[in-house]
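Below is how a single chain appears once it has passed through the pipeline. First comes the sequence as given, then the structure the pipeline wrote out for it. We keep one example in the README because the format questions we get most often are answered faster by looking than by reading.
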Amino acid sequence: MGIVSLTLIYSWVVLCVGGQCHDGERDALTKIRNGLNDPLNRLSSWGNHSDCCKWRRIACDKKMGYVTKLVLRNPYPILRLQFGEVSGHGYWILSGRLNLSLLELKHLRYVNLSLNSFKGNSIPTFLGSLSELRYLNLSYAGFQGNIPPQLGNLSKLEYLDVSYSSIALAIDSFQWLGNMFEITLNKDLTKDRGKISVKTKEGPVGNRHV
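Resulting structure:
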């Protein structure tokens, strides 16, 4: 077999391996799954294949195989009840705790945890260490306590939604919000009743009352 043939075979193997997920990220996803209550096994595909890029609710970079997207949103539409309460199809709601191993997904750009029930849990401060994150949706997810200012460390974040997460969710200050394109908050969530200055990477787009 000639040198050219060997080179072509080697290149083909590298391309095939390059699209698969990495062992460390697969282990991290397994720990995330184990920390969640999943009554209808929405995450049943997590572990069925050695390549986690083929698991449902996950997307990977096609060339390098890094996990870039995590979509754990409850697939059922919300129901608006009395007194502003919101509920999805109860059996499909994920609950429990987010595992710190989420930080092993260093190329994560998109996270959607909406329409689940993380009641009793604060928004994890470690989310502020996902440096590649562009999109974070925590709406209708039941988180409690203050929205952590560590989210302000997400210099690439363009969208944050914490609307109707909980009547016990609050924000002390808007000073850390300056880099985002869009933010969705409840009027009732804020203790700071001033204006929020909403900016894009091209500059400020104006002030919004909350």
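DSSP finds two helices and 14 strands in the chain.

See the next section for the split statistics.
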